[in-house]
Amino acid sequence: MDDLQFRRAIYSDPKSQDEELLAAMDKAPNRQKIAHDMSLLDEKIKQALQVPVPDDLCNKLILRQTLATHQQHKRKKRLHLAMAASVAILGALFINYLQFNSAYNNLGDYSLAHVYHEAEHFADNGANANSRLISLASLNSKMATFNGNFTDVLGKLIFADYCRFGGMKSLHLVYQGKTSPVNVFIVPKDDQMTFIDKFSDQHLFGESAAFNQANVIVVGDKSESLNQWQDKLSKNINWTI
Amino acid sequence: MMTKQVRYEALVKALHGDLYRYAYWLCHEKQVAEDLVQETFLRAWRALDSLKDEKAAKSWLITILRRENARRFERKRFDMSEYEESTITDTQSASHEQTMESHWLRDKIAQLPNEYSEPLVLQVLGGFSGEEIAVMLDLNKNTVMTRLFRARNQLKDILESEPAKRGLYNG
To answer: Which of A13, A31, A49 is the last residue of a domain?
Structure first.
């Protein structure tokens, strides 16, 4: 290591513990002096570089971080609240959907399901209902809701009351049939369910007729002549508007 | 959560001084240096999980600080004018010979080009090796060593050429 190399090395790193450098230093006393001067200079440089640090900087840094974290927490809390609210709204919408959206999309399917659902109440085909037959007056008072009235009761009417038909208020009539009850539904017109004029399954079949105000659906078993029922109904109901 | 907070506070306590001094020597202004350190630690807090090796914390923070400093120049182009001697405010009353000398030397270091003073600060204050400085400044090691040599050489020349001018003068 020549003098120039030595100077370069010691100037660029006075604290170097490089063996070659240390060995080179041992060889010549003037190099030791250079090294000593350099480390003195370095000490002065170090003193000079030690600019005073503001006393409160440390606390400021911690405070600022704490505040920032707090803000973040608040933002997160708000986010969580918003998320909870969204879930609640979705839940409400879903329940609404379940309640008001029927599983059946045409009148026939719904009528059949409705009849089966209430079949047990009328299983005796009105055999014991003689004393409780519905009068024309009470039938018409209910029919008034649908802007219609019957001129005649049309046979033995076992049951007449409002019921929900796919979320709509409708009138459910049950007549005594030949072997099993005949169900008549008076349903306001609605877009949700497609109109279907004839429908059936293994046991029951039905017919629908569309009037200006409402659909009239008749459901009975295979022994009934639904044509006649529809015919009688259409002749007997007077729509007021 | 708590452990992150504890880690952060430990980091602040251990390194804010070094980082502030480094920032000061980068920008030569106390207020700007303080802002830089604040920004740096705030970023460090957000990325604290990515700091796996606590030993590397210092160089990690310095890297963040350098990036922040570069961003400062992107934001305010008018700040890019060369730093002028007159803007160094001498706030410390130099009552002692040694502090006066330090002060005088401090001015001289401030007048060094940044490319010389930066590795010098990293070496003397930060205690980093030539290799580490090379990585941090994205230079090769020989360049770093040359700059260190030149920095010390210039300071030595200045010290030797002006010894009579400093010191106490009474009138």
So the answer is: A49
| Residue B78 pLDDT | 52
Mutate to test the interface with A, among B4, B121, B152 (most CBs of A within 10 A): B152
Q: How far is B13 from chain A (nearest CA, A)?
A: 6
- Whether residue A119 sits in one domain with residue A28: no
State mean pLDDT over A97-112.
74
Residues A37 and A119 placed together within one structural domain of the fold: no
Residue A45: the pLDDT is 87
Query: In the block, which residue shows the tokens 């063996």?
Result: A19
- Asked whether residue A198 is domain-assigned, the answer is yes
pLDDT for B94 equals 44
| DSSP assignment of A19-79 | HHHHHHHHH-HHHHHHHHHHHHHHHHHHHHH-PPPPTTHHHHHHHHHHHHHHHHHHHHHHH
- Determine contact, residues B37/A61, Cβ cutoff 8 Å: yes
- Selected residue of A51, A55, A60, A62 to mutate for chain B interface (largest B Cβ count, 10 A): A51
Residue A75 lies in a domain: no
For residue A108, pLDDT beyond 70:
yes
Question: What is the percent of chain A with per-residue pLDDT over 70, rounded to a whole number?
Answer: 93
Is residue B109 within 8 A of residue B124, CB to CB? The reply is: no
> What is the CA angle A130-A131-A135, rounded to 5?
90
Between chains, do A49 and B38 touch, taking CB under 8 Å as contact? no
A61 in a domain, yes or no?
A: no
Domains and CATH numbers, chain B: 1-77 (1.10.1740.10), 96-165 (1.10.10.10)
Q: What integer best gives the mean pLDDT of chain A?
A: 83
What per-residue confidence (pLDDT) applies to B148?
Answer: 92
From the list B9, B21, B149, which residue is nearest A8 (CB)?
B149
Q: Structural domain tally of chain A?
A: 2
Most confident residue range from A181-185, A205-209, B84-88, B145-149: B145-149
Domain span including residue A38: 3-49
Summarize the confidence of residues A181-193 as an average pLDDT: 81
Please tell me whether residues A119 and A10 are part of one structural domain.
no
